[in-house]
Design a protein that fits this description.
This protein is α+β, with helices and mostly antiparallel strands. The chain is about 40% helix and about 15% strand. The protein has ten helices and 15 strands. The strands form four sheets. It has a five-stranded antiparallel β-sheet with strand order 2-7-8-1-6. α2 (about 50-60) runs antiparallel to α3 (about 75-95). The chain is elongated, with a radius of gyration of 26 Å.
């Protein structure tokens, strides 16, 4: 599988200027290609092929006085910018035709020099190299110092140079890695994600929500106020803007580091991990939006998924309509209603359940059932297995609940 390895770059002032020139040239080529295709569509002309577009916006443009400065940067950077435009168009057309799953993809938009994130990409054709001294040699930029936090497991196929909103530079390598299966573990884990506790595990352990954004709210508010007092267009406002960006970058870095550590420990200690497929985009439109974004559930589950694939573990998402909170893990009875303020409830069978722990146990049981049953039959804990002809999931109206009920 392919993984990305990110490392911090520390370019000199001269190299920063060269990188800024490369960012600008890549942006101009992208915008020229987009404008040319839009003009062709408005005039009723045929769709410009990738090869024809490259010939016009790169090869022929370099011969004109208006675009002669495109020759000051590596040609691979310009070609990759155009490749990004072609990929954006293919994704847009696939989304329109229904061939691409997920949310609808918007058509490509023009890039701005004011975008908070600037990127360029070098492939093997550019002959970038990692030098013996630890520096990264980039064509027409020079040998850029790199802070290597770990060694690369194999030769990279490409490197993307990124400048984020806080002014930091990163080198992102695409590495082809082999799977590294861990020794088999007898443990399996069901995870119920929430806001009061970030995760409740089926073994009874509860992991507190770090609330990283809320803990940094005071510092962020102070930085935002300082920014609002600065005059627009002034140098002090530019400095204050970078301070705000750095404060938010620290929050996102802390959240990512925390999610990496938790996901790694769960994958290392369990042979199979199951979570509920939450409707995060829907929850982000409610009054809990700030807390949902702060939790970072999607980032965490994505880490679990790729780490399970790499280390030979099993990972699965349970249907979001599965009544994990309302289902009694002892007898299989489904409660008629379960308001969010109910954190503990009693089943007619006599069992008293902690809402989150009961949901985690049910998620584990449902995941194990789907893993063992090829037809995906819903096997509730404590119940009798269904006959083969009845092994099918039927979605009943009274079972459906919104994703909010799992919090």
């Amino acid at each position: 599988m392919q993984l990305r390895y990110n490392f911090r770059l520390y370019p000199t002032i001269t190299q920063e200027r060269s990188l800024a020139r490369a960012f600008g040239c890549a942006r101009v080529v992208f915008n020229d290609g987009l404008r040319m295709r839009q003009d062709a569509r408005e005039q009723g002309l045929p769709y410009l092929s990738d090869g024809e577009l490259s010939k016009r916006v790169i090869t022929q443009a370099k011969a004109t006085p208006e675009r002669a400065w495109l020759g000051e940067v590596s040609a691979v950077v310009l070609q990759q910018a155009l490749a990004d435009l072609n990929t954006a168009y293919r994704n847009f057309f696939a989304s329109l035709s229904g061939k691409r799953r997920g949310r609808k993809v918007a058509p490509p938009r023009f890039r701005s020099r004011k975008d908070s994130r600037q990127t360029i990409r070098f492939t093997k054709n550019a002959r970038f190299a990692v030098m013996a001294g630890g520096q990264l040699r980039l064509p027409k930029i020079g040998d850029v110092p790199v802070r290597w936090s770990r060694s690369l497991p194999s030769e990279p196929s490409s490197v993307t140079v990124i400048k984020d909103s806080s002014g930091r530079y990163f080198a992102s390598f695409v590495i082809e890695t082999s799977d590294q299966p861990l020794p088999k573990s007898p443990n399996e884990m069901g995870i119920d994600l929430g806001l009061t506790h970030f995760a409740t595990l089926s073994n009874g352990k509860k992991i507190d929500n770090p609330r990283i954004l809320r803990r940094a709210a005071k510092k962020l508010r102070r930085a935002q106020k300082a920014l609002s007092r600065k005059e627009k267009g002034s140098a002090n406002r530019a400095k204050a803007k970078i301070k705000v960006a750095k404060a938010y970058a620290r929050v996102s870095d802390t959240r990512r580091d925390w999610a990496h550590k938790l996901s790694t420990s769960l994958i290392r200690d369990n042979q199979a991990v199951y979570v509920e497929d939450l409707a995060v985009s829907g929850l982000a439109r409610t009054k809990l939006a700030r807390s949902v974004h702060d939790a970072g559930w999607s980032q965490f589950t994505a880490m679990l998924e790729y780490k399970a694939k790499r280390y030979g573990r099993h990972f699965a998402k349970i249907d979001r309509w599965f009544p994990s909170s309302k289902l009694c893990s002892a007898c299989g009875t489904v409660a008629t209603s379960m308001p969010l303020n109910v954190r503990e409830w009693s089943c007619p069978c006599g069992a008293v359940h902690d809402r989150d722990l009961n949901a985690a146990i049910n998620i584990l049981a449902a995941g194990q059932a789907e893993r063992l049953n090829g037809c995906g039959a819903q096997v509730r804990p404590g119940g009798v297995p269904a006959p083969r002809e009845e092994a099918v999931t039927r979605r009943e109206p009274h079972v459906r609940q919104t994703g909010v009920a799992v919090l």
